[in-house]
Amino acid sequence: MKVDMTNGSSVDLDDAVFARDFNEALVHQAVVAYQAGSRSGTKAQKSRSDVSGGGAKPWRQKGTGRARAGTSRGPIWRKGGVTFAARPRNYSQKMNKKMYRAAMRSIFSELVRQERFVVVEGFNIDKPNTKAMVAFLHSVNADKGALLVTTENNINVNLSSRNIPYCQSSSVFGLNPLSLVSHDKVVVTSEALDKIQEWLA
C-alpha cells in the first residue's frame, strides 16, 4: 500500500500494519484499559470503624424514652462513619501484548482508510515557534487538531505545539490508543513511520 507524502512523493506502508480490518471491540478494550490505568485510585473514606470516638454507649439501653444506641459513630449520626466507605484500589486492567499490538494495528489501518494518517519528511522546526507550527498544520490540513509523532521526544515540537488547541506531540514509544483515536489527524515523520512498522509488523 502506498500513501502520498506532503512533499509530493509517496511512501510504502506495510500491509501487515496498515491494511487490517477494524476490530471495534478490541480497540474499545485497549482504550478502556489505558484510561483505567491512568486512574489514581487514591479515593478513601472512613467507615464507622475508622472514625475516632464512639467507644462508649451514648446512653443506657432503657428508661430514657429515646431510641436505643450503642455508638455515636454510626452512619446515621453526625460525625459518624460512611456506609460502604471507599478504599484506595488499583483500577488497571491487564491486556496481553498480542492483543494490544493488534488493537494498535487496527487503529492505524482505520486512520489510513479515513485519510487521517499523514506522513511528512520532518517538522523542520529548529526552535520553539508556535506560529510556524500553526502554519505547518494548516499546510497539511490538520487545523482541527493533530497528534504529531516523532521518533524521540522533540523539545522544539513539544514546545511549539503545546499551546495549540487539540494538538499534542508524542514519540513513537509514547503512543497510546486514546491519543490515536481522539485526534482528527495523525502526522508522523518518515523516520517515525519506520519505527512504527518495525514495532507492529
List keywords for this structure.
201 residues, Ribosomal Protein L4, Chain: A, 6 strands, four-stranded parallel beta sheet, alpha/beta, elongated, two-stranded antiparallel ribbon, single chain
Describe it for me?
Helices cover 35% and strands 12% of the residues. The longest helix is centred in the middle third of the chain and has 17 residues, at 97-113. The chain contains seven helices and six strands; from the N terminus they run E-E-H-H-H-E-H-E-H-E-H-E-H. It starts with a strand and ends with a helix. With 201 residues, the protein is an alpha/beta fold. The protein has two domains: 2-40 and 91-200, 3-Layer(aba) Sandwich (Ribosomal Protein L4, Chain: A); 44-87, no CATH class.
Q: Which class of the largest domain in CATH terms?
A: Alpha Beta
What would you give as the CATH superfamily of the largest domain?
Ribosomal protein L4/L1
* Structure summary, number of beta strands: 6
Order of helices and strands: EEHHHEHEHEHEH
**Which structural class best describes the helix and strand composition?**
alpha/beta
Number of helices: 7
Q: Could you describe the largest sheet, including whether it forms a barrel?
A: 4 strands, parallel
**Radius of gyration, Cα only, in angstroms?**
27 Å
Average pLDDT confidence is: 94
How far apart are the termini?
Answer: 14 Å
Topology readout:
Elements lengths: L1 E3 L5 E3 L2 H4 L5 H15 L58 H17 L3 E4 L9 H10 L6 E5 L4 H7 L5 E5 L5 H6 L2 E5 H11 L1
Parallel strand pairs: 3-6, 4-5, 4-6
Antiparallel strand pairs: 1-2
